[in-house]
Amino acid sequence: MPGARIKGEGIRQFLCWYLEHFDEERLAARVAELPEEARAVFDPSQPNLGVVSSTWYPAYAFHALLDAMLEAYDEDQRRRFARDAARVTIERSLKGVYKFLFESFMTPERYARRAQSLFSRFYDTGKIEKRIIRPNLHRSIIRGWTSHHPVLCDVMLYMGEHVYPMLGCKHVKAERISCLSTGDIECVYDVSWK
Questions:
Q1: Phi first, then psi: what are they for 26, rounded to 5°?
Q2: Which is it for strands 5-7 and 56-58: parallel, antiparallel or unpaired?
Q3: Within 10 Å of residue 11's Cβ, how many Cβ atoms?
Q4: Which ranges of 72-129 does DSSP label H, i.e. alpha helix?
Q5: What's the pTM value of the predicted model, to 2 decimals?
Q6: Average pLDDT for consecutive 10-residue bins of the chain (194 residues)?
Q7: Contact 89, 50 (CB under 8 A)
């Protein structure tokens, strides 16, 4: 089934978070509930369902897994999950020398200019533009993101709450403006700080 893909690196972060809260049997049960074409992507007999960080996976399969993992969650629980997933993704992606280099050489302006290359590490569709509205306000606009999912979009939103403090920003606030999930034509959110 052709379509948008998501890099295994991002999927593994979700799986690691999930396994910190639930056991592998519960995760395997979620996989067993998936439609056949999505279920075939994952291997419950392997650690992290056999997901390899450097491999691209069909977005529909990960979307189905996310939906199964979070089916009993209400809206607030889904938001908390997305916020935790954003934090964990940043913490696990930026560690050791990478964290040092990021904190030492990256600025909010440089981060805004590199947004597309960072976004493309996880998604093979979509264009992200970070507009510098004011020196302490960046607006992110994501268009053509065919691997969009409401939870993944929330993760993108909340990543700002964890990335910008690493850039020296204080009192960081992320705010959604629009989202494909609510019928808008693009996903837009602001990150501001003092």
A1: -65, -40
A2: antiparallel
A3: 26
A4: 75-93, 96-105, 108-113, 115-119
A5: 0.89
A6: 84 85 89 96 94 96 95 91 87 65 77 91 95 96 96 94 91 97 97 96
A7: no
